[in-house]
Specification:
single chain, 170 residues, 2 domains, 4 strands, 42% helix
């Protein structure tokens, strides 16, 4: 069996303090290592996986230090619209033209640096047709206002009033 430990937003913590000697053990998987503090022998078994998620857009938190970085593989995940399509199909959602919504979000994301792009979780809602306006106006637009603070024309292009008729159906 494989065991997985998931640490969400791993870069929010001082990992050297949180993981302590486990940092060293990550490099020597499945080998007994004598711990410096206690003197005990310890190992991380080969069947244990550690996954950490990071929000790289959050600049208020520390970058991952090099000692930790070399002990992990980094995989950048992009919005996967197939998940939204399957969600729509499974929940028989009405009122939203998913194709048009995807086109608009992808056009928007084309103007945003990769670490700041609008993701798909906004659109994984059971009553999206009823909620899309408030999601867009109260969550996405303020985000865009902050991102494009010096380019209000870019925000205006993606305001709810300018996309509503394209994304709502029926």
């Amino acid at each position: 069996s494989t065991f997985v430990l998931i640490i969400d937003e791993i870069n929010r913590a001082n990992l050297s303090r949180v993981l302590g000697e486990l940092m060293y053990l990550l490099e020597y998987r499945d080998q007994q290592v004598r711990l410096a503090v206690s003197g005990d022998s310890f190992s991380i078994p080969a069947n244990v996986r550690l996954i950490g998620t990071m929000n790289t857009a959050d600049r208020s938190i520390a970058l991952v230090d090099h000692a930790l970085r070399r002990r992990f593989a980094f995989v950048r995940l992009q919005p996967e619209w197939g998940i939204v399509e399957r969600f729509f199909a499974a929940h028989e959602l009405a009122g939203v033209d998913l194709t048009k919504l995807k086109e608009i979000v992808e056009r928007l994301n084309g103007e945003i640096e990769p670490d700041y792009r609008v993701g798909i979780t906004f659109f994984l809602r059971d009553r999206l047709g009823e909620q899309l306006e408030s999601i867009w106006r109260l969550e996405i637009e303020p985000y865009l206002e902050e991102y494009f603070f010096d380019r209000p024309d870019r925000v205006d292009a993606f305001r709810w009033a300018n996309i509503r008729d394209k994304v709502l159906s029926g």
